Amino acid sequence: MSDKDKKNQYSNPPTMHDVAHVAGVSQMTVSRVMRGTGYISKDVLKRVQDAAISIGYVHNRLAGGMSKYDNPLIGVVVPSLQNRVFTEVLSGISDTLNNNNLQPVFGVTEYSLEREEEIVFDLLSWRPRGLILAGLEHTDGLRRIIEQTGVKTAEIMDVDGSAIAASFGISQKAAGEQMAKYLLNKGYKNFAYIAWLDERAKKRFDAFKAYIENHGGIISQTRISPKMLSMKEGRELTADILSGSDKPEVIYYANDDLAAGGLMHCITENIKVPEDVALAGFNGLNFLEALPVQITTTKTPRYEIGVEAANWISDKNSKQEERRVHEFDIELIKGDTT
Amino acid sequence: MSDKDKKNQYSNPPTMHDVAHVAGVSQMTVSRVMRGTGYISKDVLKRVQDAAISIGYVHNRLAGGMSKYDNPLIGVVVPSLQNRVFTEVLSGISDTLNNNNLQPVFGVTEYSLEREEEIVFDLLSWRPRGLILAGLEHTDGLRRIIEQTGVKTAEIMDVDGSAIAASFGISQKAAGEQMAKYLLNKGYKNFAYIAWLDERAKKRFDAFKAYIENHGGIISQTRISPKMLSMKEGRELTADILSGSDKPEVIYYANDDLAAGGLMHCITENIKVPEDVALAGFNGLNFLEALPVQITTTKTPRYEIGVEAANWISDKNSKQEERRVHEFDIELIKGDTT
DNA sequence: TTGACATATGTTTGCGCAAACATATATTTT
DNA sequence: AAAATATATGTTTGCGCAAACATATGTCAA
Q: Cα–Cα distance between B169 and B21 in angstroms, integer?
């Protein structure tokens, strides 16, 4: 009897029942083998595995997971896949969930809180065991859904604010103040700021600005865009700022891409850094190491944040109600550009 | 009666039945409202929606999707989230699937074909409507599973080889030859090559090398690493190559990050590009625009590849059996570095 | 005014699995 | 040798939904 004939005796697609029939055991025993739970003898284990392969059976989690709200899915919602910060966190999440036999289901919001609510609602229809969201800002509707369903939720990137349950991130406020303090200590007084403002950059800048202005400095120029900016715009906006008459002593950028763009402008135009203008970024991305000069920046543990959040979600003992705040350390990298 | 009391009358979590009871309709009508199918009067529509919100009902796709192999999940498997090439493709996929009301479920292989097989097997347990894989190289086991389950599969990035069903990508072979031809025409004869070799870079380099050597050029040095390399290593390996006595006229890099690292070395060391050494990359990533000089490279339509693959998967009329090859155009960007 | 068709809703049914429980045999302890 | 425990398997049951089909009522044309 050919393989094809053999297959046709059974349901299409084949079910555990079919596997059980071939292996000469009960459907429940097949279920145990598929999930690796309970007691199974070596002999039966092999027979079931062989039977499954021979008829091309693939485990169907939709069926069993039905109604139980504890299947191995984790909803992960991030603002963007174009921003390396999020893809690094995602890497940490993906690696960790894999180690815990959980499966991420992704959504991308493009930085819209309304979109986030829609996506989460949609993801919840898969009855995920947990949810990982970016930031602490969400719509009221989203908060309500999470409360109503009781789905275990981790918020990442940011700890300045009120979390739904557990939060994993850095204090954006502290990061902004730390950089302000460092730059003031270096003797700089006249600052410019270039950014594209997501929620976290906003918190960082507010703290930065407040500290600067409370300690005798001024922010004489800003270039703030509502839409996402990258290295290219960092270069252009730096050129713009430096072409004016009131030249700042330092430019603080909302991220390293912008700062690197600024550095490229200075290299191209033979502007001395930090003598003519100093530069500071944020994130501490790896590619900075490859640049001709080391940019001053704040290093954030992005991969680790993803790992810890995913571990918390995976841990059956961690409770939604504990509302733990996991604040990660940041490190100010004193580079050559300040 | 408080909201809480009202909720407690019903199942926990609430079901369509509960919603139906509150709205005074049948469970099937609620199902129609949730999925937006069939005929529903304005009045009933509103009553059902209100009822759902009032008792905190969230649609459960696990239940209905059971056994039907046509639920709105798409499995997406990529080698890495650290490589911008894949995150850009992913962006295209994510955006497009969203537009088609499909939900991506992700897996990351870390460039291991065995891991890919495991991940796909795992993803299939969610009975996805389709699968998007990177590359044309897969284990025999994976090919067999795909054939057995008949799951609609798109392969992306690469079209040089034998696809399972539909493939979406560029000809790596053509890209390698095109660059070889261009550089030979510029008069260069002595080449170096720096790479970390994934399947696609390998095909590209084989074609590049064959063309060079068949047309009077030589590849005098190579630096090929089995593990992933970034800008930093691009800089270091370039320094290494240029520190030797047999200096190549051009360095061809497997990607733009490596090439940009090479450029950074040249800028730092005041090496004239392209007079002392010419550089060429691959991908045409956006950040190249921000560099002090434009690097010669091959521009690939990454986002579009993601969009088209996702559209094909979403299209109910597209058939697995057609085995269409969707080859995308590449463009050689003649920069300042050659 | 009849029939054809669009619109709107309800009833029955079974999908494939895993929890809960039952049972049976082997192994160890007392 | 009896009791306790570990190991190994089977039986029954129901999860929540959507397909298939049935049944109304409204609307329009002939």
A: 52
